[in-house]
Amino acid sequence: MLLNFLNDSRAYITGKNCVRFWGHDHTIEVTCEVGTEVLKLIHPEMENSEMSILKAFDTHHLMIKRIGNKNYTQQKKTFIQIKREDF
Questions:
Q1: Which of 8, 15, 42, 56 has the fewest Cβ atoms nearer than 10 Å?
Q2: C-alpha distances in angstroms, 62 versus 14, 15, 57?
Q3: How many domains, the chain?
Q4: What's residue 1's pLDDT?
Q5: 4 assigned to some structural domain
Q6: Residue 30 lies in a domain
Q7: Among the ranges given (5-9, 11-15, 70-74), the one the predictor scored with the smallest mean pLDDT
Q8: How far apart are CA 68 and CA 42, in angstroms?
Q9: CATH of the domain at 23
């Protein structure tokens, strides 16, 4: 089953240097994270500020969510971390 991303909520998590977002598989909530090093890889002009990091995520959110879906389909876990090697 594919994840549904019912809303566009996302948050920058300072202590983990990542953007967290959520998908749903029916009633199961799946937490997904993509690190700033991955965002910098796909959005090289990203600066090291929360606004710039969230903008990089927003610019590439469709691709990031597609990868999150692929990882979820393979792993079926409630926590998905998107890594460099996923690109």
A1: 15
A2: 23, 25, 9
A3: 1
A4: 65
A5: no
A6: yes
A7: 5-9
A8: 15
A9: 3.30.160.140
